[in-house]
Amino acid sequence: MINYSIVMRSVNANLLEINQAKSRINQAKKDGKEPDKKDTDLVKTEKQNAFAISQYTDVMTIEKFAKHITSHGSVYSRADISAILYMAVDCMREMLLEGKKIRLGDLGDFSILLSSKGAETADKFTAQNITNVKVQWEPGQQFKNLLDDAEFNLVASRSAQAAVIKAIREGKTNVDINVPETPDGGGDGDGTTGGGTQGGGTQGGGSNAGGSGTTGTEGSGTQGAGGSGTTGDQGTSGGNTGGEDGGGDNVNF
Length: 253
Fold this sequence. Notes:
By secondary structure, this protein is α+β, with helices and mostly antiparallel strands. The protein is built from 6 helices and 10 strands; from the N terminus they run βααβααβββαβαββββ.
């Protein structure tokens, strides 16, 4: 069962300009000035749609995962399985640093993805331009059809859960879960990076919303296929690279 909550997300194509207008409005208010009418009019054009954000109910450590595997009738002990998993982690890191792609059957492929600063010419590019080394996961067949077998359960958002807990502690009988409409926006998952929220019952956790396409919809934690190249002075290279907001299956760690 996958828990999810509903969040409102801006879907305007000019969202950057709207956010900049919000910042100018806030700054004007801090300075005791009247906000520019063009900015306030622009903010009023913001359109929001409802999207889903996943909420995980627990964090499965290697020890917990090993215990779960043994519960399926494994002939190996929990300690044996834990040791194998730890060794697999070490060996995977070793092989990736040797430049190899690791193919683990239905689990999928693991490979290296590089980030780098752009150089004016190829002659001027050196290894010093490489700024980050990430692990890219390309899901196997068993992980490409999760939607077909998934069951969903709607739960309260992180902010609503926090409001309920606060009301209980303060002895209140009514809870206001409306998100204040401020120029800064607000609410659950206003970020643009992928992740999840710990939920279930009335205990909330942190939330980082994942994106899909240009609307910022919530995905399954995956990042889509994007092109290699540069953005400003930052580029990403590698086969089957995953972009931050694309619609494919690759995930970068």
